[in-house]
Amino acid sequence: MSAETAGTGTGGAAPSPSGAPSVRIRGLVRRYGARTALDGVDLDLGPGVTGLLGRNGAGKTTLLRCLATDLEATRGEVSVLGRNPERAAERTEIRRRLGYLPQNPEFYPYFTAFGLLDYMAVLKELGGRRARHEEVRRGLRRVGLYDRRHSRVRRLSGGMRQRLGLAAALLGDPELLLLDEPTIGLDPEQRIRFRGLVSELAVHSTVVLSTHQIEDVAALCQRVLCLDGGRIIFDGTPGQLVDRARGHVWERSGHPGEGHTAWRLADGRYRVLTVAGSGRGPSPAGAPGGSGDGGLVPVEPTLEDAYLLLTGVDRDLGLEQCAR
Amino acid sequence: MSWHLTPAQAHEYASHRADDVTAMSVEAHIMHCAPCRDLLPGDEDWLAESWAGLRDVVDRPRRGVVETLLASLGLREGTAKLLAATPGLYRAWLLASVVVLVAALFAAHHLPRGSLVFTFTAPIVPLVGVALAYGRGVDPAHALTSVTPMAGQRLLFLRTCAVLVPSLALCAAVALMLPSASTPWTAAFWLLPSLTLVAGSLVLSHWLHLSAASAVVGLAWLIALASMVVSEHSTPLQLLAPQAQAWWATALAALLGAILVRVRTA
């Protein structure tokens, strides 16, 4: 995997208007008992949307929780919005300017949608009652839940609760917005709405988006970070990630046989990924480049192809077997 | 007045220089005449503020009984909201507390040495309530609330207060119905130990999860009582005797001091 490493995580940050990055991390290590979730992460983040990709257990959620001041670092330096989250007063100041949507957020079921957001707004110390209520109404409108404002949370669908969590994270237009799997349960229309909201906020704010939805990353993110085993293994633009996959993605009409990462497409052809340096799969020399039966045709890689190649997905998933 | 306002009339009205009759005529006219309304300068901020005020009256969520009660006692609206929404105040916990205390009362009246049941449980009821009021695993929305500016000590102490009031009220009501409660003073023997245990768990929560801290303190209390029950040289009531109350008061003062120091430095 080290051969796939593209960056250290400190090179791609766009500076904030003040010149300093919104997030600065050096040598971050976070352990849970004997397990190391983050292992020496270095990272600078500025305004714009940064996508966090990685398998389950790669360290994405732990990284977000460290940034959200929910977890302390075992070792290393973390600076969020120019402040040190280990100091209580600075931590509170960070929290005033932070929006965080945790993975699978839970709520008080007996609250109404309005009541819950109002409660969160009180916890966020937002204004007097009237200004706070206006902000709550704006939040509900932004996520399309205004008509359900008087519904109890327990009566909302999973997607609606997810949108409620998003509205809570967006309260007060935070300077740093951390979203952990934000589009789970959203229908396509809501997903588009979500993208509009996030891209609008990202003009001035720093947004970090952890997701398994590659299409959200492709649509929203100016920068992609890939984590594996608690380390950043790629840091660059989505275009740079795709570039790395050129020459490693093919299609052919028949199954390529055992030992390849391949899956059957809707049109009956097979999409084949070849891992560089693995000694497996077809080489460019072996590809006829034509369109004959069973011949390998090089195709333009997608971000998903690039991600699968980067994380070496074939090493333990056996996609070619799943696809049959 | 002509059929439409002249600019001079509009200016006179807008600058509050029109007499009452003219002003009334202008207002009656502009109710139905958009072009004349447009002649009058609009204060966008005032208008937005007015609409916001109107929306807040029409569209304000209904407050719950507890929140209304707390607000009527003079608490700030935001504080009342936070106190009323304490997870530890779930009906299930309140119901369980009532059941336990009624069982203790029944034991005190009908079983030999039955008053000991209340002695054991009265300081534990508030402790359990506090343990259930804050923290991961007991507060369903903790992942959301724990990264807000109010999270941490401030929210913990607010919720502790929210839980202490009903639990202490319940214990006090039951204590007054005990067979041995000849005066309010003799019925309050459990109060200082109860407050001390809660304060102890709050101090310990600096190093432990609040639930674990409460469990440690509660267990220590039960072990102390149980060891005095089985001992031939002492009785559990010695822990609650007037002389012991002085020690409880001293411990409570020390623990509250530690909490105050922590709140100020938080």
What does this structure look like?
Chain A: Residues 13-22 have a biased composition (Low complexity). The complex is a heterodimer of chains A (324) and B (266). Chain A has 324 residues and is of the alpha/beta class. Chain A has helices at residues 60-67, 88-96, 113-123, 129-142, 158-170, 188-201, 214-220, 238-245, 303-310, 314-317, 319-322, and strands spanning 23-32, 35-45, 48-54, 75-80, 98-101, 176-180, 206-210, 223-228, 231-236, 249-252, 261-264, 270-273, 297-298. Residues 1-8, 283-293 and 316-324 of chain A have low confidence and may be disordered. Chain B is mainly alpha-helical and 266 residues long. Chain B is built from 15 helices and no strands. In chain B, helix 7 packs antiparallel against helix 8 and helix 9 runs antiparallel to helix 14 (210-230). The chains are: A alpha/beta (324), B mainly alpha (266). Chain A binds chain B through residues 68-70, 88, 92-93, 95-96, 98, 100, 102, 105-109, 111-112, 114-115, 118-120, 122-125, 129-131, 133-134, 137, 149-150, 165, 168, and chain B through 52-53, 55-56, 59-61, 77-78, 81-82, 85, 87, 140-141, 143-152, 155, 265-266.
